[in-house]
Task: inverse folding
């Protein structure tokens, strides 16, 4: 951009009423709602009734400038308070915590930008996983360039990490603003704005042999913040679409990203089912929970990664 548009960068924050401003002003470093005088607690936070049921639904938090942030979510405007200024974070500041470069522009309004940022995989974590897998492929496959497909792409946090090591042929994403974000920031990426169930491998690959797949199917059905219905939730069935692409593309390797909460659903039954499905397709699969802060991100954010490989091209941790 020749001229920086502050609104386009989403480096703005909203107005607050008097009560909200008092909460923010009195909030200490690393402080939460419980650290405020009770008369300033949000009504959703107060436990009521004989069983004392209720909040803390409004999770107010002032960041500590000397520590990594807690997990960035889509609720930037009513949760994360700036470390030294009496205001919430702006979406751009949250994007920095996620590792997005300042030149990366999010399409849509502030609410949409917050959602895109909060749902993204931290860029430094994606970069570390991408390098690890690319190094393994280079060492063991005899190839130097790898064609890849990006599934359930979102705003492209994983793609920033993977584009250095992989030739990403195309991406598929259903959210309109996410697709606009991808087109604005990845000039050579072909973006399919569609329901993945209506997209074929042939369309996405354009007839090319695909070496690698990566992506994160919707995680709400597995998240600890949700009801953890797993495959009973329609969003959980999207993992089946990822598996379909693995079956049809037969890549050398793949990376599937999701939330660590998946590990505990059905006492580990979901993980076992996923691995069994890949095994039946001829793939061995390992899974790891990685914390973004361990890979250079300014954030304590854990994500679950499945790394799969053809059994004839067996992957083991390097």
Result:
């Amino acid at each position: 951009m020749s001229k920086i548009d502050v609104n386009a960068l989403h480096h703005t924050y909203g107005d607050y009423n008097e009560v909200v401003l008092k909460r923010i002003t009195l909030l200490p470093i690393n402080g939460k709602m419980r650290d405020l005088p009770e008369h300033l607690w949000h009504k959703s936070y107060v436990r009521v009734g004989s069983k004392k049921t209720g909040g803390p639904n409004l999770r107010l938090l002032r960041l500590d400038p000397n520590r990594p942030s807690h997990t960035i979510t889509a609720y930037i405007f009513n949760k994360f308070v700036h470390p030294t200024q009496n205001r919430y974070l702006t979406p751009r500041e949250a994007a920095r915590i996620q590792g997005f470069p300042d030149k990366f522009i999010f399409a849509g309004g502030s609410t949409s930008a917050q959602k895109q940022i909060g749902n993204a995989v931290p860029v430094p974590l994606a970069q570390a996983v991408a390098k690890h897998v690319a190094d393994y492929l280079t060492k063991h496959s005899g190839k130097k360039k790898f064609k890849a497909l990006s599934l359930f792409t979102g705003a492209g946090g994983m793609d920033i990490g993977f584009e250095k090591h992989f030739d990403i042929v195309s991406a598929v994403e259903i959210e309109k603003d996410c697709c606009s974000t991808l087109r604005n920031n990845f000039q050579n990426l072909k973006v399919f704005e569609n329901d993945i169930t209506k997209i074929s491998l042939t369309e996405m690959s354009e007839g090319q042999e695909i070496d690698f797949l990566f992506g994160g199917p919707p995680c709400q059905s597995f998240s600890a913040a949700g009801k953890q219905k797993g495959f009973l939730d329609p969003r959980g069935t999207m993992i089946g679409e990822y598996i379909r692409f693995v079956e049809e593309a037969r890549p050398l390797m793949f990376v599937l990203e999701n939330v660590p909460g998946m590990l505990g659903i059905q006492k580990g039954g979901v993980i076992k089912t996923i691995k069994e499905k890949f095994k039946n397709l001829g793939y061995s699969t390992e899974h790891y929970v990685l914390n973004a802060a361990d890979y250079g991100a300014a954030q304590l954010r854990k994500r679950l990664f499945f790394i799969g490989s053809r059994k004839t091209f067996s992957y083991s941790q390097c």
Q: What stands out?
A: The chain has ten helices and nine strands. The beta strands are 61-62, 80-81, 147-151, 167-173, 190-193, 212-215, 253-258, 283-291, 302-310. The longest strand covers residues 283-291. The domain at 123-313 is CATH 3.40.50.150 (Rossmann fold).
